[in-house]
């Protein structure tokens, strides 16, 4: 049995199929961890959703910001963006089954000291706390008021976590941390402007993985294609999975047992 962690698909279905073939992936034997952003920007978002859902228990998926954007458009009244490639999903005959499945995905996947989320984990949150906070948001997505939450979840304030936050402010910091985080300051406050490489860090901010932690988990994340699968200057065991398939890079799987990376080139 092998376990592979794969970076952002973003609708790159042909490359996903090619990667599974190269891995000789067997869903009866192997396991797949997917770091979120299954959809959007690429041409095969609908096919990606169907492919991953069909893997059943062999695939463990965390939600990314593009997955949540799809849910917000479909069920929260949000407007689609000009560059979205979500129309095929929204018009599909199995639309509701796919959206139900996606909405029931977690924000974190954990096995012992290994944790995967879409954007990473700030040093202020331990693994147990991360699971508890993720569960709060997952509960909101599973509630009768999920539509209202999806409508209001995004926004840049508050940018800093506090234990006494409640309501939509609390949920917004949780969702932003797990799905949008790149640069933070020493308190863990999020920056939402810089999205490129490390040299784009605003004054007083650094990549979340350049801050030390009191524990020593293995942290898997996607979301940050500009890193090209690297974590320069990291002070924690962080492993970047998004190697920019949608931008002409590669789609990469990390073999968790050996640390080996296997990639297939983008067809874009």
UniProtKB/TrEMBL annotation:
Residues 2-152 form the Calcineurin-like phosphoesterase domain. It catalyses: P(1),P(4)-bis(5'-adenosyl) tetraphosphate + H2O = 2 ADP + 2 H(+). This is bis(5'-nucleosyl)-tetraphosphatase (symmetrical). Belongs to the Ap4A hydrolase family. GO terms for molecular function: bis(5'-nucleosyl)-tetraphosphatase (symmetrical) activity. Keywords: Hydrolase. It comes from Halomonas nitroreducens. Hydrolyzes diadenosine 5',5'''-P1,P4-tetraphosphate to yield ADP. It comes from the Bacteria. Its EC number is 3.6.1.41.
């Amino acid at each position: 049995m092998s376990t592979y962690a794969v970076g952002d698909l973003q609708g790159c279905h042909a490359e996903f199929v090619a990667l599974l073939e190269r891995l000789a992936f067997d869903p009866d034997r192997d396991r797949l961890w997917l770091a979120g952003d299954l959809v959007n920007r690429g041409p095969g978002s609908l096919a990606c959703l169907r492919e991953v859902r069909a893997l059943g228990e062999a695939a463990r998926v965390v939600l990314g910001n593009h997955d949540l954007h799809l849910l917000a458009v479909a069920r929260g009244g949000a407007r689609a963006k000009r560059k979205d490639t979500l129309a095929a999903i929204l018009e599909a005959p199995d639309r509701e089954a796919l959206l139900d499945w996606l909405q029931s995905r977690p924000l974190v996947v954990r096995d012992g000291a290994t944790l995967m989320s879409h954007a990473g984990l700030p040093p202020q949150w331990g693994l147990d706390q991360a699971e508890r906070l993720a569960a709060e948001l997952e509960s909101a997505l599973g509630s009768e008021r999920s539509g209202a939450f999806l409508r209001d979840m995004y926004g840049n304030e508050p940018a800093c976590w506090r234990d006494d936050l409640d309501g939509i402010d609390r949920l917004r910091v949780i969702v932003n941390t797990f799905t949008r985080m790149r640069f933070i300051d020493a308190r863990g406050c999020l920056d939402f402007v810089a999205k490129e490489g490390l040299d784009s860090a605003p004054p007083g901010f650094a990549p979340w993985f350049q801050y030390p932690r009191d524990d020593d988990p293995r942290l898997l994340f996607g979301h940050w294609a500009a890193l090209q699968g690297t974590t320069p200057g990291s002070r924690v065991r962080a492993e970047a999975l998004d190697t920019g398939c949608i931008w002409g890079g590669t789609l990469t799987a990390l073999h968790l047992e050996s640390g080996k990376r296997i990639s297939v080139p983008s067809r874009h």
